[in-house]
Structures are given as structure tokens and as C-alpha cells.
Design brief:
40% of the residues lie in helices and 13% in strands. It is built from 14 helices and twelve strands. It has two domains: 10-48 and 294-401, Aspartate Aminotransferase, domain 1, CATH 3.90.1150.10; 51-289, Type I PLP-dependent aspartate aminotransferase-like (Major domain) (Aspartate Aminotransferase, domain 2, 3-Layer(aba) Sandwich). The strands form three sheets. The protein has a seven-stranded mixed sheet with strand order 2-8-7-6-5-3-4, with helices on both faces. The model has no long low-confidence stretch (mean pLDDT 97). β6 (204-208), α9 (224-227) and β7 (235-240) form a beta-alpha-beta unit. The structure holds glutamic acid. Glutamic acid is lined by residues 18, 20, 42-44, 129-131, 179. Residues 18, 20, 42-44, 129-131, 179 line the site of glutamic acid.
Length: 405
Amino acid sequence: MQTSARPLNVNLSRAQPSATYRMMDRAAARRASGAHIISLSAGEPDFETPEHVREAAIEAIRAGHTRYTQVAGMRSLREAVAGKFQRENELDVGWQDTIVCSGGKQVIYNALAATLNEGDEVIVPAPYWVSYPEMVALCGAHAAVVSCGIESGFKLTPQALSKAITPRTRWLILNSPSNPTGAVYTREELAALAEVLLAHPHVLVLSDDIYEHLIFDGASFFTIAQVEPRLAARTLTMNGVSKAYAMTGWRIGYGTGPRWLLDAMEKLQGQQTSGASSISQHAALAALTGPQDFIIRSRGAFERRRDRVVDLINAAPGLTCPKPGGAFYAFASCSALIGMTTVAGTVLRSDEDVATALLDEAGVATVHGSAFGLGPYIRIAYALDDAVLTEACSAIRSFCSSLSG
Ligand code: GLU
């Protein structure tokens, strides 16, 4: 029904729609209209959820586990989450120190919404995942974006952190391995950031560890509350089953942090979505407590794909792509393409123009780097099988070769 629009919530009006979803939707629309499109826009594993996890969900339905659970999640799942944090991250937590939400996004959003007030600041190192600054805006607060370029490996340095902290800073958001760059913080780098944070007890830390298991070259994963236990009392360590077990559609995220924060998040969730889907919680329980070989196999596959994609992208004239240490994204500079003209006559004035022309003229969907706070870059999600990736990279290469300037 067409009616004239009414005023929206002021914070919602300030926020942008999700750039990753916008690109996924555009790729889907082109496909629906009959075009052959390869989507390197969606950050989700292409693998099927492991068989034993799917079976656990079917069994949960058969057994009648179809009712509300506790708001913060089933106790059995919270115990499994606590076990995961103890075993893999050396965090000293019990099940009461955990919360389960409908996806990792809800963990982050609820933590911010439970704590932020007008005028508060959240330090967001850029490039950042598109949703962090928008979530901060939705909460009426201000994202203090700190630009972290290629010269620091796309990582926040202690000096930059120290400069960004003000009396209004409520949170620092860390994400390693990073979406969109794949950058991984070492133990030493986290320890150096922790050193700065210890001098500023008013700052909370949100560690988004969703890509924890997608880490390459034999490197080890560290999270800041593990590296500096004195920060644990003011750190929300969050994770989820989406990327580790190819369960993006099941929508299960979880976290651990101080009880006052978890209580506030639970209160918010209790007035909002209540507990996450009971079926998905049973599936997540099977994922966390069952065989873990899936993680090793998918890490191996992503590492091989990374090597292939980085080589192919670097062979495309005008694109330069450093080798990421984790996640499943390549973040390629397209600065040499800016100012050039496509075969269809489009002048590429920004990385958004590059991503749009790649979709329209080469049939490949990517996401422009400026949506992640750093341009001119394009993010390439390489969570597709080898043959499709090779086809996509060769379409990108032909597109770049065909530009005139
Ligand atoms: N995190 C993924 C991405 O960056 C999924 C989409 C989203 O929620 O942004 O593509």
C-alpha cells in the first residue's frame, strides 16, 4: 500500500542500511532477471552444515524441543559455550557467565544498546565490518573511526588507540581475524593494546572472534581477555557457530563477559526476541560438543582458496592484494583503476563505481572498500568452490584489462 512516509526514529535515520546485504540483494536481483552472476559479496561459507549438526536439529524437532527456552539460552548450550571458552580461549568462565543470542550480530547490538547513551563514543578501527558504526549510530552514540591502513597491516596500533581514547569512550571494538581484511592480531600486538587499555579503566572491550577458526599459515588465535586476564572483567568476548560450522542461517551467536553486562543484555533480549530458536540451539549444542574435524577441513580449503584468489587478483592489471592471514576475504586496492573508463563508457570515480561496474559489466559481485571505511578497495569473499572462483577471477581480470584510461 502506498502512503506518505511518517517520521522515523532519529537514530535509525542516521544509520545506513547494511552494505553487504545491499550488494547481496543486487546480485540476487540481477540473477533473478536472468543474468549469470558470481557473487563474491556474501561473507558466508559455501559448505553445507555438518551432517551430525543437521541430524541433531531434526532430532530436536522429533523430540518436541519446540518451545521457548530461557532468554539467555538453554543451560546445556550455555555449558557447552563455557566449555568452549575454557578449552579454546583459556577464559575462566562458568555457564552463568555466558549468553546465547540470535546470531553474532545480536550479541554485539545488545551489548551496545545496553550500555550506550547519546554522546558516548565507540572506537572502531577501520577497515571495519560494515555493521559496527551503524549499530553504534542506532544506539545514538558516535563511532570514533580510527583509520588503520596497509602500512600497519590494517591493524590498530597502541599509539593510535591511545590517541583515540577520550573521557567519553565507552567501547573499543576489536575483530581478529578481520572482516574485511583478514588481518590477524598476534599475542604481542594484543598485549600492547591491552597495556594502553589498562591505563583507561572506563573503556570496555568488545572482541568479535567470529572468524577465530579461519586462521592460516599455522598461526595461533588469541583473544584479548586471554592475553590480558586483567581486562576480562570489562571485556565482552563474542563468537558464534556461523563461520566455524557453516551455520549462517541458523542464527546462533554467543558471548561471555561481566555478569552486570550479561544481565543487561538478557533484560533487553527478554523484551525483544526472547531466547534464540530452540531448534538452532540444539544444533549449536551438537556443533560445539561433537566432532571438530569440519573446522580443520574447512580451514584447509579456505587457505588453498586464499592462495589461488590472491595470485589471480594480483595478476589483474590495476589490482593489488596483500595476503590475508585469516577469514575468507581478500581486500584488494583498486586505486589504479580510479579515473579509467569501462567498455560501456562508465568512468570509475570511486571504489563503489568499480564494484558496480564489476557487477554490471563482468557479472561479479564484490563489496566496495569504502563501505568498510577504507577506499579505494574491493572486498572479495572467496567462500566458493575453486572452479567458480577461477571463473570469477578471470572475469575480473578481463574487466580490468579492458579498461581504458
Ligand atoms: N558478515 C558477513 C559479511 O560481512 C555477512 C553479512 C553481514 O551480516 O554483514 O558479508
